[in-house]
Amino acid sequence: MLSTTPRTVLNRSKQRARTDRADLHAVLDAGMICHLGVLVDGAPMVIPTGYGRIGETLYLHGSTGASSLRGALASQVCVTVTHLDGIVLARSAFHHSVNYRSAMIYGPAREVEDPGERLDGLRAITEQLAPGQWDVVRPPSRKELAATTVLALSLEEASVKVRQGPPVDDEEDYDLPVWAGVRPLLVSWGAPEPDPRLAPGIPVPAHLSHTP
Amino acid sequence: MLSTTPRTVLNRSKQRARTDRADLHAVLDAGMICHLGVLVDGAPMVIPTGYGRIGETLYLHGSTGASSLRGALASQVCVTVTHLDGIVLARSAFHHSVNYRSAMIYGPAREVEDPGERLDGLRAITEQLAPGQWDVVRPPSRKELAATTVLALSLEEASVKVRQGPPVDDEEDYDLPVWAGVRPLLVSWGAPEPDPRLAPGIPVPAHLSHTP
């Protein structure tokens, strides 16, 4: 079960809340980027960035010089992962909505210092984008590692919201002669585009050919 | 041209910065949801939500009771819109990246009080999800309007980042026998799913049948 804190308990649309850790993991595992909220000079900044999950820990990374990562370490952070699954078309403007799955994770971020955990975190971030990729590419050099900050965020305090299904209109609006329903949004892979500098004779590996 | 302020000038990957207002408009107009960063009890909160643009103003909305909107009015906000266009597969773990278009807008949010501007903002938010929809659905009632807060955010302070194209590897890595290139991510509409309660004989209107 997800923990309940004032900021993880929904005040509205309570029926959208999911409270199983498995739901949180599913939303995170299905994503490729998150939106990281940090404080910089007292104001919120929302940065799209990669992430990876190992158990109950989320890993983020960035350049050692990034002000956003300094902000992340100096205050609480909020990481949000959102999947937009469809547009919900109601008979009234007011009841328009979207179908989505989203997770919000709150907490202090921890700078990862242990070399083993740093590598594990970076591996998880790369594998989130392209599972199977880490073992076939050149691993990070000492210099590259020195230029990279790795952050860890516990999944302890988190909320998950899911909306699915048709619109919910006011009862008296169901008779209106207006089409209502859902337009699903689909995400798919296009054909891999080889680097123009790719050496001849290197095929696309199987782990980059599957469909999501 | 976009304005330059300390938080809109990129410190790294400067070649990804776009500085034309047309680039900002293009990123916003191509999106359907944003991630809104606000301060709630001194900590950042990142909320996925709809938006609409009219000229140089972004409109957001929510329930009058939402703590996130109270937070938005009590501090600066940051609105980020991100399109993930592909995964960039390099020969080294370090140079993995993503192709994307993103916009970040900063500023104080203003609560819209004028009834005409409120309706215009709500219309823009609905039309962002489904252009052509506003004129065919029941408009908001007085009661629905009273339950809705509309916020406006000037596009004055904003930054736009775009990454596209193949990976950029270290020169000595180009000889590695590793496939490199881009896996494009495509977003498309699925077939419209009629509300199970849809009255017979109402076809899907043309504005909900086009492909994006």
TrEMBL record, chains A, B:
It holds the Pfam family Pyridox_ox_2. This is Pyridoxamine 5'-phosphate oxidase family protein. It comes from Microtetraspora glauca. It comes from the Bacteria. InterPro entries: Pyridox_Oxase-rel, Split_barrel_FMN-bd.
